[in-house]
Every structure is written in structure tokens, then in C-alpha cells.
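Deliverable D4.2, example record:
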Amino acid sequence: MKILLVLTGGTICTSVRDGLRTLDTDAASLRLVDEFRNSASPFADGVQFTVGERFHTLSENMTLSVWNRMADYFRTVDFSRFDGVIVAHGTDTLAYTASMFGLLLSGVGVPVVFVSSNAPLEHGDARANGAANFRAAVECVGYRLPPGVYAVYRNVTDRRTYLHRACRLKQCGDYSEDFHSHGALDITELPPDTLSGLSATVAPSTPLLYVVDTPLTDCVLNIRPYVGIRYDTYRVEDFRAVLHGTYHSGTACVGDGGPGSILYLLDRCADAGVDLYISPAWNQGEVYDTVPVMLGHARAGKRIVPLCGATAETAYCKLLLYYSCARVREQYPDFLTCNFCGETLE
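Output generated by the structure prediction step:
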């Protein structure tokens, strides 16, 4: 079995020096492989690892520039040479990077699995889950995980290991070290038949990685709602699109049309020729009567567009791709609203 190991950085690639966590991707790759070789995994002696690019980036420092470098690197990879790819990444922005590359790498023909660690590997398995996550990822590949992009993570609260579809992964909650996603599969006990019920991921005929021919740009403004927000403080004219989050019931303040109302934001966006989207958004069942007010408001032919069924992280990534790359808009005109690679919750 052949696995490509890509190290972006993050806690899983750090060492502790004088009380500070410092990036050391070379040591991390050796430690991850050594700990796996010394584990009780049935694949411990049967894997050939190829260490690919190292990006030396703490995940809180993840930028569009690094994403562009990662995409450029993956375009050079011959995926047919490997049975799977494992990407080591930090936890802070894991859901965002997993979502972006869940879109870009869907359809490459092998499983791509993101792994992280809640603490540096040297703290040992009792505190750090990185080695356990890495072993689970390798075993998923060994047990013939269907092609697709995933994340594997052992939650701290229940010490159960879950397999997530990358485009459905949510950021950790506040003061939490647990990851969640819709449809996550518990793989704590991983015999060969555990993955048999996993449906194959939806995949485009041509991976989006090879369609995107221009770099990602900072063309999308991402706004989170809060009580007291003032939309007149945002420079929406500097962007091509605005993504506005919603409260858990799919709502946002419609107010009296003043600067604290999302209706005011739509008016500003319409005047600037900027598109406005909301996510998460509901497309079935009962909704509050403020929702049709929000979606029914129009100015200069523009309305708020709901991105239904996608996580906020994936909605943001889809907008970045759509507005950064003309070829995405040309080849997939319904890219924002279609279920491109299984990211949309039905």
C-alpha cells in the first residue's frame, strides 16, 4: 500500500520548546510514521509512505496564498501512483481547508484524508490524539475507503473516532476539542466491514482542481450576525460577493430597515453591484415569518440568495471558487446551488 503524506503544519506538526509550540514538520513526519510502524495496526508493516510537500503553516495562519500553493502542488501529483493521500493539518482552520480541498480534490480517484491533533504528538496518546487519528486514516485507506475527501478525528469528550466527509465538517465549538459533521461515521472499532455501508461520494468527472486555472482571491466578505451589528461599517464595494451567516434557525435581523437590518445590507450590496448570500439556509419545513421578508426584499433586481444545505465553511469556499475563477462559472453555472460533491445536506 502506498500513501502520500502532505504536511501543512498545525499542532500535529509542532514540538514543544521552552513552553511554546513550534513548527517542526520534519520531526512530525518521522514521528507519525514511526509511531504508526510501532502500533498494533494490521497495516503497520505494509505501508510505503512518500512524504510530499511541507507548507510549514500553523493553521491559524492559513491564508488564501497557502491554499493557492497547496492547489499548485496537488496539480503536480500523480494520484494514480498512490492508494491514498493523508494531509496533516492544524485544528483551528481544519474545517475551512477540508471544505476547500473537499471541493478541489473530489474526483481524483483515491481517498484523501485530513488528520489533526489536539496537542503535540510528544504529549503521548493519553493527551494527544494525533497518532490515533493518523493510524485511523491509514487503516481507512487500507480497508479500501471509497475515493473522496475526508477528515478523521478522535473526539476528546467521548474518545470515539469519527470519519467525516470533508465538505460537511464544522469548526470546533468554543472551548471544545471535538469535531462534528452531518452523517459522520463512528470508526472507533475498524474491522474491514465497517466502511462497507459508506456510500460513494458524489464526484465530478473532472476534478475541480484542474478546472480552476486562476488563483483564489479575497473577493468574498464573510459576515457573522450578532446583536447590535451595523452594516454601514462594512466596505461591501471592495468585494464581489458577501456571505452572511444566519442564526441557528436560518434567520437574520430584518429590523426596521436601518443599518442593523440585513435588508439595509442588501440595498448597499445592490447599489455596489455585489451579490449577497446567506448560509446556513433552510429550504423545507416551517420557517419564521421574518425569513420571507428577508428573501422577498429586492433592490435593482437583486435579492438575497440562500445557499441551502451547505455548511457555512463550504458555502464560503464555494463562493471563493465561483467568484475567483471564470472557468468554474462557465463550466458549472449552478455550482453554488448544486450538490457538487456530496456537500449538500438533503
